[in-house]
Amino acid sequence: MFKKIKAWAKKLKRQIFILYYACKDDRVPWYAKVFTACVVAYAFSPIDLIPDFIPILGYLDEVILLPLGIMFALKMIPKDVLSNCKVKAEEMMRNGKPKNWIVGSLIVLIWGVITVWAVIKIYQLFNYHEN
């Protein structure tokens, strides 16, 4: 079972690299580029939308959301573009993935805003009950 999971993860990583190159190709329609760029940016982000320390939900994005995004993106891209990008992806896999610190920073900002909002609401709730 561990070998199956490892093979699945390697295939997923390869597909992300294929999408990385596909979203830079001029033959890909604009709507596919936008969707693909979002999937790739999220995959390369060093921070998850749902943190992994949250039980069950923490791995939801890696197990369900990201594979679904990859599947839809691959269907939007012309087959000839995909075949060209597969070659480039193999080379990139040997060199390691790039990090998308912009998307990572955006996710940190979103979680920061949510945290500040939650703290303010809790503070207001406790002050309301004291009066």
UniProtKB/TrEMBL annotation:
<dbReference type="InterPro" id="IPR010652">
    <property type="entry name" value="DUF1232"/>
</dbReference>
<keyword id="KW-1133">Transmembrane helix</keyword>
<protein>
    <recommendedName>
        <fullName>DUF1232 domain-containing protein</fullName>
    </recommendedName>
</protein>
<keyword id="KW-0472">Membrane</keyword>
<feature type="transmembrane region" description="Helical">
    <location>
        <begin position="53"/>
        <end position="74"/>
    </location>
</feature>
<dbReference type="GO" id="GO:0012505">
    <property type="term" value="C:endomembrane system"/>
</dbReference>
<keyword id="KW-0812">Transmembrane</keyword>
<feature type="transmembrane region" description="Helical">
    <location>
        <begin position="30"/>
        <end position="47"/>
    </location>
</feature>
<dbReference type="Pfam" id="PF06803">
    <property type="entry name" value="DUF1232"/>
</dbReference>
<feature type="transmembrane region" description="Helical">
    <location>
        <begin position="101"/>
        <end position="120"/>
    </location>
</feature>
<feature type="domain" description="DUF1232">
    <location>
        <begin position="32"/>
        <end position="68"/>
    </location>
</feature>
